[in-house]
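Hi all, posting the design record for the shared folder.

TITLE: backbone redesign
STEP: 1 of 1
STRUCTURE INPUT:
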């Protein structure tokens, strides 16, 4: 952990010393839904988030490939919670929990720190991309978890075609026109399909020296089929659709090395490793708990699984610490899925627990209600799975669109996104594909959490 500057002498207190102080870590679906629900009640809520904004992560790949802008999939938490006068939003990265003093230490972007007190703590910090102990992969293979990730991928994707345009035919040009995706889950499938659409439709007539539609997209996964969380029939349909788009599926392999020039994959069943020359590699293969969540588990003596998910009681509280709740992807119970619906329902459940505590009523058990799963394959083609209902093709695409639009935060986001998609249906343009390579001369105040991410607090 780097030096974090001078800590404030005083702890930030809630507006009233008499009302219950609820501190929520993370402004994702779980934290936001919890804060909004408690915004109607007689408690003081503080929402601490490292970005001060809510991001609709399921649509990050649409931003990365130029269909949607940042504004379509994100919204300021201050704007979102402005009407809730008992909710305070703070910018900071939670780095240390002191359960005895009931405080959380947070780091500002300038690496100074401050502390926030609580009576009830809700940890909804989410997960980060996992490289399974090979963190050096991140330099060459960005994940898909943040807005920065999406903009980085957009830059790499469209820059690859630009560089290829300047090269003569041969292996070097071919490597720039080869895109490798590690991970065959929903995010990997969606980004692979979108890259092929960019190459074969959006950019098809814009270059002179290259034929973008000849770009290769390689999808690697250790399983025997893509989208293993879906029914086998839908998974098979997804594989056929991806293949028809031109995505090359390589199943039953692990990506064992990533570098500047490409990837190395090794069959799970054994055999010789194989190298693929690809100058653009994207990583969607796994997730793990953020450093603060691991520190929480350690100081509270809570059990965790290999990914850092925290074991909880039936009401989502940490065993032995009824004042601390875990929400969303970090919950290590009942194989709950790492999806937005689980986080939303968890956030609402914790808010209900807080209200019941105030009313002197017993808490209820958390019960997750599966509202279905959806995955976008290509324009006009998606999968939708809701209980026994299995839908694919255009009907699945409509269902996918309805689900995502319904969950978007803020009416303006929904309306503008609907019109963007309607316009995109009839033409190949992607109006939000602009990228910048950055400046080398202008002095910048560079704020980053990258050093803080290296080591738990």
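Okay, here is what came back for every position:
SEQUENCE:
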């Amino acid at each position: 952990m780097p030096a974090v500057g001078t800590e404030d002498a005083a702890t930030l207190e809630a507006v009233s010393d008499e009302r219950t102080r609820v501190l929520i870590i993370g402004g994702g679906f779980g934290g936001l839904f919890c804060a909004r629900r408690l915004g109607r009640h007689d408690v003081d809520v503080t929402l601490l988030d490292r970005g001060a904004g809510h991001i609709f992560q399921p649509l990050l790949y649409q931003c990365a490939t130029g269909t949607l802008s940042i504004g379509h999939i994100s919204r300021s938490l201050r704007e979102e919670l402005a009407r809730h006068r008992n909710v305070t939003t703070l910018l900071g990265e939670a780095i240390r929990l002191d359960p005895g003093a009931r405080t959380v230490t947070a780091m500002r972007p300038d690496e100074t720190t401050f502390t926030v007190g609580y009576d009830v703590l809700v940890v909804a910090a989410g997960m980060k991309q996992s490289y399974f102990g090979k963190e050096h992969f991140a330099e060459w293979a960005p994940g898909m978890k943040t807005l920065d990730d999406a903009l980085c991928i957009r830059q790499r994707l469209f820059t690859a075609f630009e560089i290829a345009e300047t090269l003569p035919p041969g292996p070097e040009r071919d490597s720039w026109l080869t895109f490798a995706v590690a991970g065959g889950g929903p995010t990997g499938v969606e980004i692979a399909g979108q890259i092929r659409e960019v190459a074969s439709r959006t950019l098809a007539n814009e270059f002179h020296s290259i034929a973008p539609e000849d770009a290769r997209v390689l999808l690697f996964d250790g399983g025997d089929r893509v989208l293993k969380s879906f029914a086998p029939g839908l998974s098979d349909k997804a594989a056929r659709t991806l293949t028809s788009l031109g995505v090359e599926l390589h199943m039953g392999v692990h990506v064992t090395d990533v570098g500047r020039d490409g990837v190395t994959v090794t069959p799970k069943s054994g055999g010789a490793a194989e190298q693929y020359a690809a100058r653009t590699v994207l990583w969607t293969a796994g997730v793990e708990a953020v450093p603060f969540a691991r520190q929480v588990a350690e100081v509270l003596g809570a059990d965790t699984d290999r990914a850092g998910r925290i074991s909880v009681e039936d009401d989502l509280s940490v065993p032995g610490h009824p004042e601390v709740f875990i929400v969303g992807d970090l919950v290590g119970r009942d194989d709950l899925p790492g999806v937005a619906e689980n986080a939303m329902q968890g956030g609402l459940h914790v808010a209900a627990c807080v209200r019941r505590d105030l009313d002197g009523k017993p808490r209820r058990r958390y019960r997750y209600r599966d509202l279905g799963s959806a995955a976008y394959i290509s324009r006009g083609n998606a999968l939708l799975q809701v209980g026994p209902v299995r839908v694919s093709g255009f009907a699945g695409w409509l269902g996918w669109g309805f689900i995502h639009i319904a969950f978007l935060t803020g009416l303006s986001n929904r309306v503008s996104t609907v019109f963007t998609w309607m316009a995109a249906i009839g033409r190949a343009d992607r109006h939000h594909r602009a990228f910048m390579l950055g400046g080398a001369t202008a002095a910048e105040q560079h704020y980053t959490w990258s050093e803080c991410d290296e080591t738990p607090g």
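COMMENT: The two ends are 7 Å apart (CA to CA).
Let me know if anyone wants the other runs.
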